[in-house]
Design a protein that fits this description.
mainly alpha
Length: 339
């Protein structure tokens, strides 16, 4: 889904899921090396994913666009070269390019699968790494900063580097990606178990470079197909609950709406009476009073009268007298109970 996605934020969000998948897989393997790899990858992922989101956030802020199709062919690499370089540090990190921190943590997890004799898991981890490099390390920067113009591009005014504070934030994150990639011992000190793994062994470096170069070759061959498309919403698992959502809407529009109309017709008179009583609450007392004394008064006539406080105002002395009587009775009952 990340490979076909054109929305840059959704594309990066897909890779949150994929990178957490590496960690879950490592925990499932359960060995000390795998658990070290899970911890290392969690640490590295927080750093390089922050750099990636900050880089794309800078592009969105400056251009006001978030779709690759709206950004390709505008040569943003000339106007935002610093953002491009810092983004690529994060992209190389998540793609497990040697000398970047993602290479250290991903290689540890893949090696743990190999040492644990899990060839299928090892292969799936390699394939996931290929997809990550293809979408985040190649397709996304090519479409955003480079890309072939197709004649439909409109001009984006005032494109420039983001504010200095944003560049500093990206720069610090990129620096951490490089430091922990070149000096993995700084990362190993934070892990739960003692580390005896050497990520820069020739076999690990050669295997990683082979995958990266083959992915790059495939991208160059199929670049036109990968970058083609039109603006649309890519559906994945939300396809299921979208169908359920349409079912709910249809139910509300037809059966439930008809039931509401029937209820409304059945209780229309009652609701009208209740509405009038809410405007003139004393009318209910008058209806009861006239019924008790046997005097005929039309209910409709009473309900249609407008409430006027002067009609129900009584002298203040009556209220005071009633209050004194209540207090006297209360005191009498209290003394009788207390005595």
């Amino acid at each position: 889904y990340a490979i076909i996605e054109k929305d840059i934020r959704r594309l990066l969000s897909y890779h949150i899921v994929s990178q957490v998948g590496y960690m879950v897989c490592a925990v499932g393997l359960g060995s000390e090396m795998a658990l070290n790899g899970a911890g290392a990858h969690a640490f590295c992922h927080i750093i390089y994913k922050a750099v990636l989101f900050m880089g794309m956030g800078a592009v969105i802020q400056v251009t006001g666009r978030r779709n690759i199709l709206d950004l390709k062919g505008r040569n943003l690499y000339r106007k935002m070269p610093i953002t491009l370089v810092l983004y690529m540090v994060g992209a190389f990190s998540i793609s497990a390019v040697p000398l970047f921190n993602g290479f250290v943590s991903k290689t540890m997890i893949v090696a743990a699968a190999g040492y644990g004799h899990r060839p299928v898991i090892e292969l799936m981890l390699h394939l996931a790494s290929v997809g990550t490099f293809l979408s985040v390390g190649l397709k996304l920067p090519w479409g955003v900063w480079f890309g072939k113009p197709d004649g439909s591009e409109d001009e984006i005014a005032d494109v420039k580097e983001p504010p200095l504070n944003m560049q500093i934030g990206m720069g610090l994150g990129a620096l951490l990606c490089v430091i922990t990639g070149i000096f993995p011992q700084t990362l190993y000190k934070l892990l739960p178990y003692e580390v005896h793994f050497h990520p820069y062994a020739p076999s690990h470096v050669v295997a990683s470079l082979q995958l990266l170069l083959l992915t790059l070759a495939g991208f160059c061959i199929y670049i036109d197909k990968l970058m083609a498309g039109k603006k649309s919403i890519s559906l994945d698992t939300d396809w299921f609950y979208r169908i359920f959502g349409w079912t709910v809407l249809l139910f509300c529009r037809y059966p439930l709406n008809r039931f509401r109309n029937l209820v409304q017709l059945a209780f229309a008179d009652k609701t009208e009476i209740a509405a009038r009583l809410s405007k003139h609450p004393y009318a209910l007392l008058e209806i009861v009073w006239y019924a008790l004394i046997g005097q005929e008064k039309s209910m409709t006539e009473l309900l249609q009268r407008t409430y006027n406080e002067k009609d129900y105002r009584v002298p203040i002395g009556i209220g005071v007298c009633a209050s004194l009587i209540f207090l006297f009775l209360y005191a009498l009952i209290y003394m009788r109970v207390a005595g």
